[in-house]
Design brief:
Blueprint lengths: L1 H15 L27 E7 L3 E3 L6 E9 L2 E2 L10 E9 L3 E3 L6 E9 L2 E2 L12 E3 L1 E18 L17 E6 L3 E4 L3 E4 L4 E5 L12 E20 L8 E2 L20
Parallel strand pairs: 2-5, 6-9
Antiparallel strand pairs: 1-3, 3-4, 5-7, 7-8, 10-15, 11-14, 12-13, 15-16
Length: 261
């Protein structure tokens, strides 16, 4: 009975560890199944494979565990469909979550390598998944130089003469006409002298023209505000300002009206 048990145990051992030719106990009639290296016949080898060799966020390295059956020293086909033994993932991270235009977001490219189900830590130091370059509006007070006009009378100009009607015609400038005869031993003898008067009229006209002139002085007055907006087409490209509205170049920086924008 004991001998039969020993023979049974021996047969089992020979099945698990086949005796090679030349070894003690070798028999071509007692050859068991062959193993696949460290994998026993009838057991499975496992491996981890990846769907893609490279991925970019928001994608990630996706793995699957595959098995292959060892049958008498030969592996069968592995299960599963993934064919990449490694996978490298890439992503972009930012130093801050937001900036104010025109300062661009600072970006960093990071990577991670995966193999046999284990992944390295991400490279780089930035930790923000997104960054917004926020638009902003800038406003300034403006002053304008405004003229002020004070009227005053200038010298006459372009005054054409015009016709005046005669007036103030009083008789005056009278003269006397006498007939005088000289007589010997008597002298000059004059007869009655008649008075002759002339009515002379004087036309007095006043043609005075005044050119109204204006003296000009300037004051520096508040003219409200001017503004402009900064915006960016990409968060990693420095934004740009649009034009001042109204145009600041036409105004001054303070109430002294000495320096223009």
């Amino acid at each position: 009975m004991i001998n039969r048990i020993l023979l049974f145990i021996t047969a089992l051992l020979l099945a698990e560890a086949p005796i090679a030719s030349g070894q003690v106990g070798y028999s071509p009639f007692m050859r068991g199944p062959q193993n696949c290296g460290a994998v026993f016949s009838g057991s499975y080898a496992t491996r981890i494979m990846y769907q893609s060799a490279t991925v970019s966020e928001p994608g990630a390295c996706v793995s699957e565990t595959q098995q292959a059956l060892c049958t008498n020293g030969t592996f069968g086909a592995y299960s599963g469909t993934y064919a990449n033994s490694t996978c490298t993932a890439s992503r972009t991270r930012y130093s801050t979550a937001s900036t104010t235009c025109p300062i661009p977001c600072s970006a960093e490219s990071q990577s991670q390598s995966c193999s046999n189900g284990s992944c390295t830590t991400w490279t780089g130091s930035y930790s923000n998944a997104s960054c917004a370059q926020n638009s902003t509006t800038e406003t300034m007070n403006i002053w304008a130089q405004n003229p002020h006009y004070t009227p005053y009378n200038c010298n006459p100009y372009n005054c054409n003469p015009y016709n005046c009607n005669p007036y103030n015609c009083n008789p005056y400038d009278c003269s006397y006409s006498c007939n005088c005869v000289w007589w010997p031993f008597v002298g000059t003898v004059c007869s009655t002298c008649p008075q002759t008067c002339y009515n002379t009229c004087y036309n007095t006209c006043y043609n005075t023209c005044y050119n109204t002139c204006y003296s000009t002085s300037y004051t520096c007055d508040a003219a409200g505000t001017t503004s402009r907006t900064c915006s960016a087409s990409s968060n990693v490209v420095a934004g740009s300002w649009n034009s001042w509205s109204p145009n600041a170049a036409n105004y001054y920086t303070n109430n002294a009206c000495m320096v223009r924008y």
